[in-house]
Design brief:
single chain, 5 helices
């Protein structure tokens, strides 16, 4: 369990931060950027949840996802180095991917098929879920870029999870928009 007695340590005053495994990285390092952007997505979901209290099923899913995102951040902050560790690092697992896929299917079951792209917006919950979706996509782009560097690994379930998350948030936004009835559709070339 994590124990935080003191919030500031001054160790990052030089522009570095420590990974869970010990090494220090610059605060603009791609790995730090990846788990920082996961934290930003998590915070965006927290804001969206201010508007999902009347949707207990969706709110419970979002709360589970927020917990998963801490798992994902811990996973990214403890890169595989090949060295023997005295503890088992927390990793995102395939069951978390399967669960989010199941929840996407559950929310999507009663939505009408789309015939156009959706403009982000509608209800406050949907607008915030769309914002969280774009942050999750940015996190995914950073994670994929990081995984392409020699010596940097990201486990496959972590990459799958972040990819599914943006799909989940898209469907959740439609669900929050009165089951898609309040979606605002893109009309190509409308304002030419």
């Amino acid at each position: 369990m994590v124990r935080l007695n003191k919030i500031y340590t001054r160790t990052g005053d030089d522009g570095t931060t420590a990974l869970v495994t010990g090494p220090r990285r610059l605060k603009h390092d791609l790995r730090v950027d990846a788990y920082g952007t996961i934290d930003e997505a998590n915070s965006s979901i927290g804001v969206a949840r201010l508007h999902t209290a009347g949707m207990p099923e969706l709110d419970a899913m979002l709360m589970r996802i927020q917990n998963d995102l801490f798992d994902l951040g811990a996973d990214l902050a403890a890169p595989e180095t090949g060295e023997k560790l005295t503890y088992e690092p927390l990793r995102v697992i395939e069951a978390q991917v399967t669960r989010i896929e199941s929840e996407i299917d559950q929310l999507n079951a009663d939505l009408d098929p789309l015939k156009s792209f959706i403009l982000p917006g509608g209800s406050p919950a949907a607008a915030h879920l769309h914002m969280a979706r774009t942050v999750a996509r940015r996190a995914e782009r950073i994670m994929v870029e990081l995984s392409r560097f020699e010596g940097e690994t990201i486990d496959e379930p972590a990459l799958k999870y972040i990819n599914r998350l943006s799909d989940f948030l898209f469907v959740a936004a439609r669900f929050a928009n009165d089951g898609g009835k309040a979606d605002i559709l893109w009309v190509p070339g409308k304002n030419r």
